[in-house]
Amino acid sequence: MNFKLTALLLLCSLSAITAQQKKWTLQECVEYAVEHNLTVEQYELDLQNAMIDKSDAVGALLPDANASVSASGNTGLSFDPTNNQPVTTTIFTATGGVTSSVTLFDGLRNIHRLNRAKLNAIAQQYRLDDLKDDIRLSVANAYLQILSNKETLIVFQAQYAVTEQDLKRTKELVNAGVVPEGDLLEVEATAANLEQQIVNTENQVLISKINLAQLLQITDYENFDIAEADYEVPPSDILNKSAKEIFAEALTFRNDIEFSRANIDLAVKDLAIAKGAKYPTLGAFFNYNTRYSDQARFNNITGVLETQSFGDQLWMNDGISYGAQLNIPIFNGFSVRNNIKRAQINVQKAEVQLEQDKLDLETNINQAYVDVKSFAKAYYAAQKTAEARRLAYEYSKERYDVGLMNAFDYSQAQSRVEDAEAEVVRTKYDYIFRIKVLEFYFGVPLLLNGS
User: Fold this and answer.
1) Is residue 350 part of a domain?
2) What angle do CA 105, 110, 113 make, to 5 degrees?
3) 20 to 30 Å CA-CA from 32: which of 98, 107, 123, 140?
């Protein structure tokens, strides 16, 4: 028994360790965020409400049916419901009935409400999918920010390792009297500055992890981490497309555009519903009723008073009524006319909103297109700068090693290399994200090589 308990505890511990060591890929982050985001849950509930509205609209086309039963006892003057005669004794009565009604015509408003409910369910789905698109972009941006900060941290740590070697060598030269002590102080200052940059970058890594974890609704920030990988600028043919081509493709599938189009359809249906109030409404009804009384009745055949059974009375005292009702609107204080005007205005507003959304989408795509090109130039320029800084640093190091350069100029050369390599990292991930944004507008899924 103790062995089983120990094995169970060990299994639980291993499971916890495995969970803590999980490294999240971009695809896993995106899927998890979409599944657990609180706003997504709210929109999904709105979609469920839209489906219920659709069921209500279907039910409004069907006849209703209601049954009623009542029983009562009276003492003193009352009326017998079976013959409407007054009685002054204690009487027990029961009545029951079934009623059904159906709307035959109401200006086709019931049909338009059903179609509107169907359109609203579609619109809510587009709204939900558009939110998921926004979450995917936000997660991708936060994910790449972690990668950028981590890679920057590696750069600074590597530079610090080199500086430690320089510091050790400079101490030996100072002790040997080859270089002045001021050179040692300069190298120590460089090392201290790198330590500060490492601490700051470690904080940035932690903060960027927290930001991504919050998008995923994960509270265990300390154990949250993403998959380690060396991401390079992905090959992409997106710049072979013009901004107009990307915009034209985006119009065919973007959920925000489809949502705006669905809102126009909804407004048109609302207008049809409002116009339907101008027409007469025709309805039909059917009623079945029966009643019972415990009072004795005089039997003309036998000549005696007798009380009929409950079942016999229900059969003998039943009745049916049916008919139709027509309501014709004549004057209603301009409410129908004004509702139609409001609905017409809402159609125009929905059409204007669609054009505004198209304009916003085109603006965003043009901006993303320009961003890709500008960040590409910035990235390649940063690479060239870093290469030049590295060559200059190697030359400075050679001169410093033979005593032809002082520690201050050498530390400046080293600092320029650090800044240049950090700039390469920053511009690389900025460039990657802009590529992914532009591809996303073209319908390419948000994936990174290795994710």
Assistant:
1) yes
2) 160
3) 123
What average pLDDT does this structure show over 80-90?
81
CATH label of the domain that carries residue 111: 1.20.1600.10
Q: What's the residue count for the chain?
A: 451
State which amino acid sits at residue 403.
Answer: G
d(CA 195, CA 430): 25
Residues 38 and 76 in one domain: no
Burial environment of residue 362 by CB neighbours within 10 A (0 to 12, 13 to 18, 19 or more): middle
Q: Residue 112 has which token pair?
A: 């338009």
Grouping H, G, I as helix, E, B as strand and the rest as coil, residue 102 is strand
What is the rounded CA–CA span in Å between residue 211 and residue 437? 19
Please report which helix (H) or strand (E) contains residue 289, including its range: strand 281-293
* Same domain? 133 vs 239: yes
Neighbours of 330 (CB within 10 A): 5
Say if residues 284 and 62 touch (Cβ distance below 8 Å): no
* CA angle centred on 142, ends 138 and 143, rounded to 5°: 115
Model pTM above 0.70 = yes
| Tens-digit pLDDT profile for residues 1-21 | 444 444 444 444 444 444 446
Q: Are residues 92 and 121 in the same domain?
A: no
Structure tokens at 115: 């179609």
pLDDT digits (tens, 9 = 90+) for 34-47: 998 889 999 999 99
* Backbone Cα Rg of the chain: 40
Distance CA 161, CA 112 (A): 73
Q: What does 383-397 look like in DSSP terms, one character per residue? A: HHHHHHHHHHHHHHH
Q: Which amino acid is at 451?
A: S
CA–CA distance, 391 with 399 (Å, rounded to integer): 13
Residue 109, both tokens: 């408003």
Closest listed residue to residue 181, CA positions, set 352, 412, 406, 355: 406
List, for residues 112-139, the tens digit of each pLDDT value.
Answer: 999 999 999 999 999 999 999 999 999 9
Q: Range of 294's domain?
A: 70-104+283-328
Query: What pLDDT sits at residue 293?
Result: 87
At 409, list the tokens. Answer: 């100029």
